[in-house]
Specification:
single chain; 617 residues; alpha+beta; Nucleotidyltransferase, domain 5; Substrate Binding Domain Of DNAk, Chain A, domain 1; 4 domains; 6-stranded mixed beta sheet; 36% helix; disordered N terminus; binds adenosine monophosphate
Length: 617
C-alpha cells in the first residue's frame, strides 16, 4: 500500500508541497508548518496575529467575517455570531440537550438522534459548514503568508472525540477545500512538538494536561513503536480560564460591595469587568500584585488571593488526572513525561499543582497556545515524507465505507488510516418490518457511492420483523496488515450475522488511486453540497414517513383539525423534497416538527419515537 501525494493543479505525484498542521480549537484556531530550516513554525499572517478566534459572524446581507473581525459581534449581535462550534461538531440534538442554553445563537433542538443544525436568519447551517468557514480563513491566511497554495492539512481533535466528531472534522476540511491527510489527537500533536514519540525505539507513558479557556482534558497515553495509544481521558468540557475570570469578578463584586444584579444588567460594566479580570489573571502569571480600576471601581488582587480563589477549580482538574490514571490502571509514578497545553496552564498555581501531583517537572517551554498546532505541523511533515528517520506505518490509500440512504458513501475506515485497523458503526432499518438489509461496500473519496469503486455486496437476511429504527445492526470493518478487508454485519437483538472478505487493493494501479484522489479533491465542494441536499431529503422523507405513520396509528387521539393541519405541513414538505434546496427542506422539516411536537410528545409511543432515531441504510 502506498501513500500518494498529488499536485492539485496537474494531478501528478508530488513530494515537495507544503502540508500544514491545523489546531481547530473551541476558542482559537491556528496553523503551523515546517519552515525551510526544518523547524515547526506558527503562521502569523501580517498584522493579523497567530491565533484566529473560532468565531463566525453573519452580516445582515449574508456576508461572513471570521476571527478577530467577528469577535465584537459576540456582544453586539449574539444571535448571528457563532462561537464554540467545535462543541457541536458531530453531535446530535440529544448530545447537547443539557447545555443548549450555553449558546446565544439558535441551535435547532429536536431531541432526536440527528445531527444539530444552527439557524442564522432564515438559513440553516451544519457545524461542519461553520467549521469549514474557519478552516477556509486559516487556509487563506496560510496561503497569504506562505505565498503558495495550501491544499493539504493535518487537523487535530481532542482525544475523546468519537468517530462521528472526527468524520465531521474531516468533512469540514474537505468543504474548505483541504485534503485532510490525517486527523491527529491533540495530545499526540503536543507530545510531538516536544519531540516525545519521534524516536520509534522509545517506549513511554505520558500525561497531557490541557486547560484552555472553556474546556479541560487530560489524556494518558502509551507510546510504543511510534504509535500513540490513548489509555484514558478525563476532564470537564465546561471548565477553564473563563472560570478563573468569573472567580475574580465575584471577588471584586464582594470587595466593593457591588450589587450583583445591577452589574450583570449593565452589559458594558459587566464586559469591562470581565476584560479587567482576564487582564489581572494574566498579569498575575508573572507578577505578585495587580492594582487597577474600572471607572472608579478598584480592581486589586494579589497572587495569593487569586490562588485561593481558583484553588477549588484547579483541584477539580487534579481529581480528573487521578481518575484518568485509575482508568488506565496506573499511578502517578508510572508517568514519565507531563506535557502542558492551553493558555490557562500559564497560571503558576496550575503548573505547581500538576507538577506536585505527578511528582515531576512539567514540559511548559513551548507556548501552550501553539504547541498543538506546532505538533500537527510536525505530523504533516512526517506524512509529506520529509522525515526519513521516522517510521511511517502502512496506510490505506483510499477510504472504505458502505452505502447509506440516498446513495451516500458512509466512510468507516478513512484513507490514510494505519493498517491493521478496525472500525465499526451501528445502523438501523428505514422501513417497518424490514427483514433484509443490503450491505454494499465501496472504496473511494467521493460522497456519492456511484462515483466510487464497489468492492462487494451482501444481504444480511433474517432480521426479525420490527418497527423501523429498532434493529441494531453493527457493521465492522477489519483491514489486516496484508490489506484484506473483512466486513461483518451483526444484528444485535437477534444475533443474525453475515461476513464477507475482499481485497480492496486488488486490480488498482497507483495511477488509478491517484486519479480517484484527484477527482475527490476537484469535486469536493460539489460533492459536499450534494451530500447535504441528499441528507436533507433523506431526513425529510423519514419525517414524512414517520408523520404519516403517526397519524394513521393515532387517528382517534388527534383532532380532525390537527390531522388536516398536519397533512398540510406534510404536503408542503413533500413539495420541496426534490427542490435541491437544503435550507428550504430544513425549514419545512422544522415547521412540521414545531407543529406536531405538542401532540407528538403527548402521544408518540415508544416504537414510533424509536423509529425517528438512528441512521438507516
Ligand atoms: P486557549 O483556549 O488554550 O486559547 O486558552 C485561553 C485561556 O488561557 C483563556 O482563559 C486566557 O485567559 C488564558 N490565558 C492566556 N494567557 C494567560 C496567562 N498569561 N496567564 C493565565 N491565563 C492565560
Amino acid at each position: 500500500m502506498a501513500k500518494v501525494s498529488i499536485n492539485i493543479a496537474t494531478g501528478s505525484i508530488q513530494k515537495e508541497d507544503i502540508i500544514v498542521g491545523i489546531d481547530l480549537g473551541t476558542t482559537n484556531s491556528l496553523v503551523a508548518f515546517i519552515n525551510p530550516e526544518g523547524k515547526p513554525q506558527v503562521i502569523n499572517d501580517t498584522g493579523k496575529g497567530v491565533l484566529v478566534p473560532s468565531i463566525v459572524h453573519f452580516h445582515p446581507d449574508g456576508s461572513v467575517v471570521v476571527g478577530n473581525e467577528a469577535k465584537p459581534y459576540l456582544v453586539s449581535d449574539p444571535s448571528n455570531t457563532i462561537f464554540s462550534v467545535k462543541r457541536l461538531l458531530g453531535r446530535s440534538y440529544h448530545d447537547i440537550e443539557n447545555y443548549k442554553d450555553f449558546f446565544s445563537y439558535k441551535v435547532i433542538d429536536d431531541n432526536t438522534e440527528s445531527l444539530v443544525k444552527i439557524k442564522v436568519g432564515e438559513r440553516f447551517f451544519t457545524p461542519i459548514e461553520l467549521s469549514s468557514l474557519i478552516l477556509k480563513e486559516l487556509k487563506e491566511r496560510a496561503e497569504h503568508a506562505l505565498k503558495t497554495p495550501v491544499n493539504r492539512a493535518v487537523i487535530t481533535v481532542p482525544a475523546y472525540f468519537n468517530d462521528s466528531q472526527r468524520q465531521a472534522t474531516r468533512d469540514a476540511g474537505k468543504l474548505a477545500g483541504l485534503d485532510v491527510l490525517r486527523i491527529v489527537n491533540e495530545p499526540t500533536a503536543a507530545s510531538l512538538a516536544y519531540g516525545i514519540g519521534l524516536n520509534p525505539e522509545e517506549e513511554k507513558t505520558i500525561a497531557v494536561y490541557d486547560l484552555g479557556g472553556g474546556t479541560f482534558d487530560v489524556s494518558i497515553m502509551r507510546i510504543q513503536n511510534g504509535i500513540f495509544e490513548v489509555l484514558a481521558t478525563n476532564g470537564n468540557t465546561f471548565l477553564g480560564g473563563d472560570d478563573f475570570d468569573r472567580a475574580i469578578i465575584d471577588h471584586w463584586i464582594e470587595q466593593n460591595q457591588l450589587n450583583r444584579e445591577e452589574v450583570s444588567a449593565n452589559k458594558e460594566l459587566a464586559q469591562a469587568l470581565r476584560l479587567k479580570a482576564e487582564e489581572a489573571k494574566k498579569a498575575l502569571s508573572s507578577q505578585n500584585i495587580y492594582n487597577e480600576k474600572v471607572g472608579d471601581i478598584p480592581c486589586a488582587l494579589t497572587r495569593s488571593t487569586f490562588d485561593s480563589l481558583i484553588l477549588p477549580k484547579v483541584e477539580e482538574t487534579i481529581v480528573a488526572c487521578q481518575n484518568a490514571l485509575k482508568d488506565a490502571g496506573l499511578s502517578a509514578a508510572d508517568i514519565q513525561e507531563v506535557v502542558m497545553v492551553g493558555g490557562s496552564t500559564r497560571t503558576p498555581l496550575v503548573k505547581q499543582k500538576v507538577a506536585e501531583f505527578f511528582g515531576k517537572e512539567v514540559h511548559d517551554q513551548i507556548n501552550p497556545d501553539e504547541v498543538v498546532a506546532l505538533g500537527a505541523g510536525i505530523q504533516a511533515d512526517i506524512l509529506a515524507g520529509n522525515r526519513k528517520d521516522i517510521l511511517l506505518l502502512d496506510v490505506t490509500p483510499l477510504s472504505l465505507g458502505i452505502e447509506t440512504m440516498g446513495g451516500l458513501m458512509d466512510v468507516i475506515i478513512p484513507r490514510n488510516s494505519k493498517v491493521p485497523t478496525k472500525a465499526g458503526r451501528q445502523y438501523t432499518t428505514s422501513v417497518d418490518g424490514q427483514v433484509n438489509m443490503k450491505i454494499s461496500i465501496y472504496q473511494g473519496e467521493r460522497d456519492l457511492v456511484k462515483e466510487n469503486r464497489k468492492l462487494a455486496e451482501f444481504d444480511l437476511k433474517g432480521i426479525p420483523a420490527m418497527p423501523a429504527g429498532l434493529p441494531k445492526v453493527n457493521i465492522n470493518f477489519l483491514l489486516n496488515a496484508d490489506g484484506i478487508l473483512t466486513v461483518q454485519a451483526l444484528e444485535l437483538r437477534s444475533g443474525v450475522k453475515q461476513e464477507v472478505e475482499v481485497k480492496p487493493a486488488y486490480g488498482l494501479t497507483d495511477q488509478e488511486v491517484e486519479q480517484m484522489l484527484f477527482d475527490s479533491i476537484t469535486h469536493a465542494k460539489d460533492d459536499v453540497a450534494q451530500r447535504m441536499i441528499i441528507e436533507a431529503r433523506t431526513e425529510g422523507e423519514q419525517m414524512v414517513y414517520t408523520a404519516e405513520r403517526f397519524l394513521e396509528k393515532n387517528k382517534e387521539y388527534v383532532s380532525t383539525q390537527e390531522i388536516s393541519d398536519t397533512i398540510k405541513h406534510i404536503e408542503s414538505l413533500k413539495e420541496v423534497l426534490n427542490s435541491g434546496d437544503k435550507d428550504l427542506i430544513h425549514k419545512k422539516i422544522d415547521e412540521l416538527n414545531e407543529f406536531t411536537r405538542p401532540f407528538a410528545e403527548r402521544l408518540m409511543d415508544q416504537a414510533i419515537s424509536q423509529a425517528m432515531k438512528g441512521k438507516a441504510i
